[in-house]
Amino acid sequence: MATARKRLAICIRNAGYEASLERRKIYQVLPDARASRRELIRVIDESGEDYLYPEAYFAPISLPQPLRKAVLAAA
Question: Which of 9, 43, 13 is nearest to 26 (CA)?
Fold first, then answer.
């Protein structure tokens, strides 16, 4: 199932990125091994574009399947 492979993270910090990141908001994470080696995370924002931010600004989350589907459908 496609939704099972998509990772989600919640923004816990946005210093320096206040215009781009919203604290307590759930973001879809895209895999990016190269960025990860540099302690960065690639997330999709409201515009549908993906950008790199510090990994420390996010915490990975796991949601029950019905809620996960609803969050991904709203994205």
Answer: 9
Kindly report, residue by residue over 13-71, the tens digit of the pLDDT: 999 999 889 999 999 999 999 999 999 999 998 788 999 999 999 999 999 999 989 98
Number of compact structural domains in the chain: 1
Distance CA 68, CA 74 (A): 10
Task: Report pTM.
Answer: 0.85
Range of the domain at 48: 2-74
Pairwise CA distance, residues 23 & 16, whole Å: 12
CATH of the domain at 35: 2.30.30.40
Strand 58-61's sheet: what is its strand order? 50-54, 40-44, 26-30, 7-11, 58-61
